[in-house]
Amino acid sequence: MKINVASGPHDPANQKAVYVFEAPVRLWHWLHTFSFLVLAVTGYLIANPLPSLAGEASDHFLMGNIRLIHFIAAYVFAIGFAVRIYWALMGNRYAREIFYLPFWKIEWWKGLFHEVLFYLFLRRMQDKTLGHNPLAQAAMFFLNTLMTFFMIGTGFALYGEGLGSGSWADQMFGWIIPLMGGSEAVHNWHNMGMWVMITFVVIHIYMAVRADIIGRESSVSTIIGGWRMFKDDQP
Amino acid sequence: MGIQQTFYEAMREHGITRRSFLKFCSLTAAGLGLGPEFAGTIAHALETKPRTPVIWLHGLECTCCSESFIRSGHPLAADVILSMISLDYDDTLMAAAGHQAEEILEQTIEKYDGNFILACEGNPPLNEDGMYCIQAGKPYVEKLRRMADHCKAIIAWGSCASWGCVQAAHPNPTRATPIHKVITDKPVIKVPGCPPIAEVMTGVITYMLTFDRFPELDRQGRPKMFYGQRLHDKCYRRPHFDAGQFVERFDDEGARKGYCLYKMGCKGPTTYNACSTVEWNGGLSWPVKSGHGCLGCAEDNFWDRGSFYSSVTNLNVPGGVELTANQVGGVLAGAAAVGVAAHAAASVISHSVDSNKGGKQS
């Protein structure tokens, strides 16, 4: 099967499909998604435990297991993100998009403004983009990338409290605890970070599904298969 | 009060027997986690070293540190330590008063310039030039600065001196300020707690007098030997936490069985102190053992963090918003869900209008 490959978003002759998200990016996306899901559920249960169990303490290890699952998922989340950072350096240009904002480019700001107007129903036509449009990029940068750094940092700082002073987590991340005003404050902000990311997930899934149904380009299938497909030939 | 007198001589003068003295040395070595061989080191140091004077100042405080200190579980510890310090200056405990008492400060500066330890209980208020705490006709902060200029090192007793505590709670009208933010050119060791545990206090002061240095400190200036772990890490109810067995109400079956107090707001998981190992009043009890959660009194700003009876407490956003992460986050995520639903509905309408026009979008 011959696939027409576009040279850029405004290549009306051949813009059927462009390979945007490489395999490591797609794999990370789903690792990130499912580890976050596990982290959010277990994290909520650590802050707000399930109803008390009866019987002997030696018969149960419920809270211990919930914490264990949280820590394993946290390692998946953190190591996955570390590999993703590596891929941002090694991969194509779309692999770098979520790690920076090209705020020095006037077109980027125009694009951002256009997207905001589009989502307010004040513009009928969305610009075609291969990776993320400026609004999506900004949301991804602040609510996912920076929050991921924040959650990994605060998370391992709290983990280091359990491992003990002098442990690797304490040495690398322990400084965060006095910086934020103590262990209790870090717990609370770590909890808040979860809610910010849940808010992001709600909007992110909506935008992706919406783009697939009534937008001009593929979205959900792109993060599964990697190819961005366009539905029309207009610029 | 000869300058050559050793600690040991001072203690003997106060009627402490050699047997009691050696007991104290072993107890303190164990308390400091130093191992039995250090009992001899401590005894030797106290026998041979000239006594280091300790000046004990009181700023804005409630005297609970002193109350704790003089009730040191091992009665001996208090006797021994008090014989080291009460000779010099502690306006709560000493017999002298008025001009006589204030003279001692000047005499100490004269005799032991750069060689005495300044133990601060409470903190200075800085608003209105320090007028909220006047001692001998002068703001306390001036007295603190003068003594700090001439001392060797400072011990910040309790949460007041270490963090600010209750009088520094929002909105802190007197601008009560912890010692390390007022005195920045001298080493400060923090011994937080409201009050700190008596054995911790005597342990710290003995270590300093014996070894002429601070014990190993953590990032925030607290001695690691007593503040290296959270209460939760050594709590005897920890197995119930791991099992998922919690007190849900103070009158339920779990409370009677001694389950974990986490759901009742116990701050053990976020509080660094030695309560769960050293305990209080000579190992008699401590808050969790008596069935109530820890309030987190040894932690910075514990007073302003919200409920003592909830596991999730306030975010402490500047401006004094008293909301928890679950409250803010629930509203945030809920608003996002509602916004998304509304936007989806508007999108369907907008899209069908466009389609009916044979519109621009396919």
Description:
The complex is a heterodimer of chains A (235) and B (362). Chain A is an all-alpha fold and 235 residues long. Chain A contains eight helices and two strands. Chain A has helices at 23-47, 62-90, 106-119, 134-163, 168-173, 176-179, 183-214, 220-225, and strands at residues 17-19, 227-229. In chain A, helix 1 (23-47) packs antiparallel against helix 2, helix 2 packs across helix 4 (134-163) and helix 4 (134-163) runs antiparallel to helix 7. The two termini of chain A are 25 Å apart. In chain B, helix 2 (18-31) packs across helix 3 and helix 4 (64-70) crosses helix 10 (198-211). In chain B, a hairpin with a 2-residue loop joins strand 4 (134-135) and strand 5. Chain B starts with 6 loop residues before the first helix and ends in a 6-residue tail after the last helix. Chain B is elongated. Helices cover 42% and strands 7% of the residues of chain B. Chain B is an alpha/beta fold. Chain B is built from 15 helices and seven strands. Chain B has a five-stranded parallel sheet, with helices on both faces. In chain B, strands 4-5 form a two-stranded antiparallel sheet. Chain B has helices at 7-13, 18-31, 37-48, 64-70, 75-85, 98-112, 140-150, 158-162, 179-182, 198-211, 224-227, 238-243, 253-257, 275-278, 325-356; strands spanning 54-58, 89-90, 117-121, 134-135, 138-139, 153-157, 188-191. The interface between A and B is large, with 52 and 64 residues.
Please describe the topology of this protein:
The complex is a heterodimer of chains A (235) and B (362).
Chain A: E1 17-19, H1 23-47, H2 62-90, H3 106-119, H4 134-163, H5 168-173, H6 176-179, H7 183-214, H8 220-225, E2 227-229
Antiparallel strand pairs in A: 1-2
Helix pairs in contact in A: 1-2, 2-4, 4-7
Chain B: H1 7-13, H2 18-31, H3 37-48, E1 54-58, H4 64-70, H5 75-85, E2 89-90, H6 98-112, E3 117-121, E4 134-135, E5 138-139, H7 140-150, E6 153-157, H8 158-162, H9 179-182, E7 188-191, H10 198-211, H11 224-227, H12 238-243, H13 253-257, H14 275-278, H15 325-356
Parallel strand pairs in B: 1-2, 1-3, 3-6, 6-7
Antiparallel strand pairs in B: 4-5
Helix pairs in contact in B: 2-3, 3-10, 4-10
